[in-house]
Each structure stands twice: as structure tokens, then as C-alpha cells.
Amino acid sequence: MPLGNTRVDRGFRSKYEAAVAKDLTDRGHTFKYEPRRFKYQAVHFYTPDLVLPNGIYVELKGYLKPTDRTKLLAVRDQHPEIDLRLVFQRAKTKLNKASEYTYADWANKHGFIWAERTIPEEWFSDERHASPPCDCLAEGALAAAGRRARRTRRDPPADEPYTSNPAWSTLFDAT
Q: What is the rounded average pLDDT for all residues in the chain?
């Protein structure tokens, strides 16, 4: 019997599932269709775009996809010790064409501190976060060097100080 040519019967998710079920029934076999659900978790990693000298993590978002929203909520829930903030390119952008809900609305609903276009100056002096201060210049430089190495398929020079990149020195005071 060719499997896959049977119409989708009520309760089956695909034509193929319906065809296999029909084949089993025709051959006299019994079975239960989707009798249980199993929870599973996959391990993912999140890399915030920036970390400020005071330990505030910043995610820069031009387009906030549904997968991004899920990821941000999971990171926030699983890492309450970090202060994760969002900067939207345009906070009034709708979540989708049919929605009246904006990126700003979503961030407010879920308790994220957010800004539009650029990082506010007060974030640099805000000490309300729970994250310990870090050596963000070194960490940022290492991450950037790693990305550069993957792109160029070579290791960055070991003796190249991270402050040699003018883009980094404009982001943070290296002193």
C-alpha cells in the first residue's frame, strides 16, 4: 500500500500519519495515536550585544522576531541575576502586520527596561542591576576577536591589544 496518498483523517496531523494509521488498522494492529506529551528542553546559548562597564547587558533590536521574544523571556527567567535591557531601532514597530501591539508594548508587558535608538546616558550610572561589574572591554574585545577569527579563518594576533580597534575605544573609556 502506498503510504501518503490517504486524505488526512480527523485527529491526524499529516497525510502520512493518517496513511500509516490506516495501514496498521487494515493489517489488524491496534495503537494509540499521540497518547502522551513529553516535556523536553534543548540547550541554547545567548550572547548579548553589549555589556556596559557597570554590568548592564544590552540587546540591540532592529527586528524583534517571535523567536527573539521567546529567547529573551527564557534568558530573563533563567538568569534573574543579570540586568538585561533592550534598545529598539524603532520602538513603535508593530509585532506583526495584524497586531496593534508594539515592541515597546511587549517590553513593558514583560518588565524589560528599554530605550529607542541609543543607550541612555543614565544607564551608564545606573547601579540598580544585580550583575557584578565586569571587565567589559576585555570581554567585548575577546568576543569581537572570536567573531573576526571565525570570519577570516585565522587567529587574531596574540599581541594585539583590544584598545587598538578605534571602534572599541569610542564605546568605552579604556582608562
A: 79
Q: In sequence order, which residues have a C-beta less than 8 Å from that of residue 104 and are 6 or more positions away?
A: 88, 91, 92, 114, 116
pLDDT in tens, 24-43: 999 999 999 998 998 888 88
- Between the alpha carbon of residue 60 and those of residues 47, 72, 107, 126, 152, the distances in Å are 11, 12, 13, 18, 24
Domain that holds residue 79: 50-125
CATH number for the domain including 59? 3.40.91.30
Q: Is residue 67 part of a domain?
A: yes
- Which residues make Cβ contacts (< 8 Å) with residue 90, sequence separation at least 6? 62, 103, 116
Q: List, edge to edge, every strand of the sheet that includes 50-51.
A: 50-51, 57-61, 84-88, 114-116
- CA distances (Å), 33 to each of 10, 17, 150, in order? 12, 9, 46
104 and 76 share one domain: yes
Write down the pTM of the prediction. 0.58
